[in-house]
Task: inverse folding
């Protein structure tokens, strides 16, 4: 458009085309053949003009390069139930409540994810003090901070480029923190040696698990890597396997025996998988997520022997190692048991173990701090692993600092020790109390059975769903337990994750629920679940 009086066509169609083009560019048309704006920035369009402009814009817009058909099919195959459809629905309900929409409840209780601080758990003072000092070193001169916190902060900052938490670290992590991780592992495992060079700091445990799987997956057709995972499992594993286009090989935990791991089941799973893939990775979650079982020493020995015998790379997800509640249960690291089984095992079985700041008594999910210890790697593969890690530069340095406090906490004789140990024991004792409360209350409800919560921070109860409800779920193209959990959310405001998102034996139904809410709120939640389940059975039985 060249301004008034210079539209060469003199036709309304051309004037409209100019107007549409200018409007798309955010400019006002000056053509006298079009109506002038009633006020600055507002143009009166006739319905015919609008329709014409829309048609022109439709022609002008070309087909998108990235569509569901053209996107990476492995990414499309990824599913992550913990933040899946049920959580999206919970978010919609929260928005409705804020707008004043009336519901039979006043808040959504998100019991779907193990986010301790979001559920009201208080941070560990010492950890936050050290991270604060590292973040703002001027506080090192403040008398408000204890000397043991300042000592750790100075050591961490000395390991940072420019003495700043804002600098990149080495891809493997800050050296002094890796040294502290190795010392922690040695203390935890009763003197079993740990080499800082085998320690890799990660962005939470998830980053380490995904990285190791990435370097393990290879081959095509029947030689494609198979990854053995427990069912039920934490959906990170199935998601990572899908993204890498590896083969998921399920082995089932024994629900009738408190979710125990049976080596005979491992052997069945492995032998069947050999017909269609090359199983070479065995994943163990101990304590279990979502099932909460704690593996005993004999079980771990059997698993290690099986991995040695079948030449499997072991992945030990041990992020809940501080969360053990049941009497008679004790956490045993795979690294420790492997060492104690003798040099034939210790010098040969390839093992990656994972830990995190997100769980335990810390609950520092947002810092994304974690580490993995990888032993018996081929020297050339070690170089490849470091290369792969260097692509993402380094894990968050603030998360590395938080991880350091987990592995290097106050010790007896230091001024922060008494407060630290009091806070730590308070969190863990509270979780133990809530684990027992949850188990007991669920087992009083007809149609719900809950195994003992030996560890971790979830219940995974089995629920009876009547055939009438199963049929209705099918009519809504939903898994029966998704239908159940959606009804629970819509009627009570409680958000839990259906067992189908974790895997379960066919014909059984479960949901996963965190035990993190404060005790009084947890009691209310459990009462609501009980009342809902009884009504659900009355309606559909």
Result:
């Amino acid at each position: 458009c060249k301004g008034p009086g210079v539209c060469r066509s003199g036709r309304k169609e051309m004037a409209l085309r100019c107007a549409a083009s200018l409007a798309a560019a955010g400019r006002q048309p000056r053509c006298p053949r079009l109506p002038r704006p009633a006020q600055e920035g507002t143009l009166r369009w006739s319905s015919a003009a609008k329709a014409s402009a829309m048609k022109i814009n439709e022609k002008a817009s070309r087909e998108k390069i990235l569509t569901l058909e053209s996107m990476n099919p492995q990414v499309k195959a990824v599913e992550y139930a913990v933040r899946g459809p049920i959580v999206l629905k919970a978010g919609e309900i929260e928005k409705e409540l804020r707008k004043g929409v009336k519901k039979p409840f006043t808040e959504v209780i998100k019991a779907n994810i193990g986010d301790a601080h979001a559920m009201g758990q208080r941070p560990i003072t010492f950890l936050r003090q050290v991270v604060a000092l590292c973040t703002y070193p001027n506080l090192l001169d403040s008398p408000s901070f204890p000397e043991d916190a300042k000592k750790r902060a100075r050591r961490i900052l000395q390991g940072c480029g420019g003495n700043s938490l804002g600098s990149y670290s080495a891809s493997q992590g800050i050296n002094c923190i890796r040294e502290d991780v190795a010392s922690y592992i040695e203390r935890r495992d009763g003197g079993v040696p740990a080499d800082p060079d085998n320690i890799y700091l990660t962005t939470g445990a998830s980053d380490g698990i995904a990285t190791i799987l990435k370097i393990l997956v290879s081959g095509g057709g029947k030689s494609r890597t198979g990854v053995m995972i427990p069912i039920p499992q934490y959906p990170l594993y199935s998601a990572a396997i899908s993204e890498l286009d590896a083969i998921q090989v399920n082995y089932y935990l024994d629900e009738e025996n408190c979710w125990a791991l049976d080596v005979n089941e491992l052997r069945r799973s492995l032998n069947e998988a050999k017909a269609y893939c090359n199983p070479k990775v065995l994943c163990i979650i101990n304590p279990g997520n979502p099932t909460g079982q704690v593996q005993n020493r004999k079980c771990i020995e059997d698993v290690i022997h099986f991995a040695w015998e079948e030449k499997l790379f072991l992945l030990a997800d041990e992020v809940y190692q501080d969360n053990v509640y049941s009497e008679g249960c004790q956490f045993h690291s795979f690294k420790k048991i492997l060492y104690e089984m003798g040099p034939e095992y210790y010098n040969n079985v390839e093992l990656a173990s994972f830990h995190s700041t997100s769980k335990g008594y810390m609950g520092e999910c947002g810092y994304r701090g974690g580490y993995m210890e990888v032993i018996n790697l081929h020297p050339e593969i070690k170089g490849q692993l470091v290369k792969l890690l260097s692509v993402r530069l380094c894990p968050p340095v603030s998360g590395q600092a938080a991880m350091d406090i987990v592995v290097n906490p106050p010790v007896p004789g230091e001024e922060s020790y008494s407060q630290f140990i009091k806070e730590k024991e308070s969190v863990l004792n509270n979780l133990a109390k809530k684990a027992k409360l949850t188990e007991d209350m669920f087992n009083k409800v007809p149609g719900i059975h809950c195994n003992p919560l030996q560890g971790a921070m979830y219940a995974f109860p089995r629920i009876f769903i009547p055939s009438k409800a199963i049929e209705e779920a099918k009519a809504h193209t939903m898994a029966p337990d998704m239908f159940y959990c959606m009804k629970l959310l819509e009627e009570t405001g409680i958000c839990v994750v259906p067992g189908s998102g974790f895997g379960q034996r066919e014909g059984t139904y479960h949901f996963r629920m965190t035990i993190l809410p404060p005790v009084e709120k947890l009691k209310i939640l459990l009462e609501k679940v009980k009342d809902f389940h009884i009504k659900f059975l009355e309606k559909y039985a």
